[in-house]
Amino acid sequence: MAGITVVGSGISVPDKVVTNDDLTATLDTSDAWITERTGIKERHVGGITSQMAIEAGRRAIEDAGLVPSDIDVVLLSTTTPDALVPGTSATVQAGIGVPGGAFDVNAACSGFVYGLVVAAGLAAIGSGRVLVVGADALSRITDWDDRTMAVLVGDGAGAVVVEPVDGPGDLLSWNFGADGTLRHLLMCDHGGYLFMDGKEVFRKAVRVVVESAERALSDAGLSAADIDLLVPHQANLRIIQAACQRLGIPEERTAVVIDRYGNTSSASIPLALDDALRNERVSPGDHLLLTGFGGGMTWASAVLRWRG
Ligand code: UT7
Q1: Is the pTM above the cut of 0.90?
Q2: Which domains, from first to last, does the chain contain?
Q3: Average pLDDT of the segment spanning 10-21
């Protein structure tokens, strides 16, 4: 049975940067409140999901030393597709010039981890390389007069190239979770704006992240001490800190980019992973723990032995 290895990574964010101070011009908020409660200092906005995904995807393919015709499937995780129909992945497939299939995954902020695991499943049943992209333009479904949401969100995309390999490959363990009875905690109706019960999501998030991450560690036969880098969904620095503390993983071994990007939903884990790769924080054989949670609610964790 074929396993997987990750052979390339790339990101894209829109040029426009909005700082916390910029937001105070139109909202009753402050840099101090946003920084203390969330860890966010600035975010990129004005993105279009397909365009960011195309750029991130191209960069990941180039980073892998490949060309678009080397890719068999485009898997796009997004909650903010360009349109309801068609799936945005098809636009990305055409924009990059990938010859193979394309489909969207929507598991909100957990979507990138879901996508990575689905790519491993495709590899196991004989697919070629899969471009896994997490891209979201939350700014497009945000009411910029609502301070409870506007200070949190940002736009971006991150992509990885997943390649089948003989043997077990780099994905050591994974799990998915969902609880649709909690859909009301974080939602956006057709034509509407994002709504979130922040306090409830916060409480639930810490619990499910810790449970899911601990299960992934135990299924991989590892303990927290074996994890070289935790790559969590970037929703709130305080959630990341609480999860680190409960898991027993020091913050120094955690990838954090929320200060620069805010909450970018599906893009947040690949943005954080790419940042760690660029800053040479990941070496072959390192154990990475990816863990996400979000609307649905959904959650997912995966342990990788990097190019192990
Ligand atoms: O990615 C998907 C998952 N998303 C998340 O995981 C997000 C989870 N939730 C959170 O990150 C936090 O709950 C928030 C950052 C959304 C809010 O932080 P909080 O510490 O839970 O604040 P709060 O909602 O309890 O609000 C505290 C106070 C309130 O005022 P009072 O009632 O104490 O007078 C709010 O009205 O802060 C007020 N407030 C603000 N003040 C300044 C709410 N938003 C703002 C704001 N600026 N932007």
Answers
A1: yes
A2: 3-165 (3.40.47.10), 171-305 (3.40.47.10)
A3: 98
